[in-house]
Design brief:
Length: 303
């Protein structure tokens, strides 16, 4: 897969204050990428630079082979953006909003609007006022709006903010769908890590204006999560203090033991041993989350 975005040694200052420091990364065409970092890390600034809305102080960028410094207009024509402020007209219907924006993008096509409304399961609500929609429905219309002109890249700034868990999983479902059906490359900024765990192919971790780590989840897990915490639901009642056949554990409530293992290789022998002595209803690794990795990378132990 070719790179659709290439960023090399970007510096950005605002009022002589360095905000982005030597930022380099690349993004593969057709992939879903998470740009993760706390508030103020510089995520939105990166999106604005990539779209040519602001210029870098130093460094080079290529977006779809174009230079955002010179070709911002062309990049914005070929990219879709969803920001936190949905900028939909509340006193207009979903249909009229999409017609209005498609005319602005010079991409008016009623078939495309119908197709997007169908894709986001909003066709039955097309004539209702956007102001009456739930936050989740508004997000779906914002996504449809950003896709009207069939962009090659979709930039999403905190797409799940303000949504309840159901709304979050529905947005994630639609993003998977859009990525597959429209072959659009996606870059999502977020500070809420666990929501992106099942969505992204690769991650960029940004802290105080620097990329402190990048990669796919499996590589990052192998690098940062050396120990494994395994929560086992079992009838086992070990007699010996804090070890069971050499495996360290803690009691975590009725029928729940948390084992601390040196590696995943120890899981099978441990479970075999327990099954010899008792029943097992479930076992789950509890520290292999994006959040755990993030805290390890940032050097902060949250456990
Ligand atoms: N136009 C501007 N002028 C001056 N400072 C700015 C400007 N835009 C952003 N900043 C500063 O740059 C830093 C990074 O901001 P940015 O919005 O990129 O962070 P972020 O990671 O997107 O944060 P959040 O999660 O809060 O949206 C912040 O300290 C912010 O105050």
């Amino acid at each position: 897969m070719a790179n659709i975005i290439e960023v090399e040694n970007i510096q950005k200052e605002f009022n002589r204050k360095p905000i982005l420091k030597d930022v380099s990364f690349s993004i593969k065409e057709g992939s879903i990428n998470g740009l993760l970092g706390p508030n103020g890390a510089g995520k939105t600034t990166i999106i604005r630079l990539l779209n040519g809305v602001i210029n870098a102080t130093d460094g080079d960028m290529k977006v779809m082979g174009l230079d955002p410094r010179k070709d911002g207009d062309e990049i914005r024509k070929r990219a879709g953006i969803v920001t936190e402020s949905a900028s939909l007209y509340h006193d207009m219907s979903a249909w009229d909003n999409l017609v209005f924006y498609s005319k602005i993008y010079n991409a008016y096509d009623p078939k495309r609007i119908t197709q997007l409304l169908e894709q986001f399961e909003m066709l039955p609500f097309k004539d209702q006022l956007v102001g009456l929609f739930s936050t989740g429905m508004k997000k779906r219309i914002s996504l449809a709006k950003a896709l009207l002109h069939k962009p090659k890249i979709l930039f999403l700034d905190e797409p799940t903010n303000g949504l309840d868990p159901e709304g979050i999983s529905s947005v994630i479902h639609y993003l998977h769908k859009v990525n597959e059906e429209e072959k659009v490359t996606i870059l999502i900024c977020s500070h809420v890590l666990h929501q992106l765990e099942d969505l992204c192919d690769s991650y960029l971790f940004l802290k105080e204006g620097r990329i402190i780590e990048k990669g796919i989840l499996r590589e990052l897990e192998d690098k940062y999560l050396t120990d494994v915490r395994l929560l086992v639901e079992t009838g086992l009642r070990p007699q010996e203090g804090s070890h069971y056949n050499g495996f360290a554990y803690e009691v975590k409530g009725t029928n729940k033991l948390e084992f601390l293992l040196d590696s995943k290789d120890e899981i099978a022998p441990l479970l075999r041993q327990i099954l010899n002595d008792s029943w097992v209803h479930s076992s789950v690794i509890i520290n292999r989350s994006l959040e755990s990795i993030y805290f390890k990378i940032g050097g902060i132990d949250h456990e």
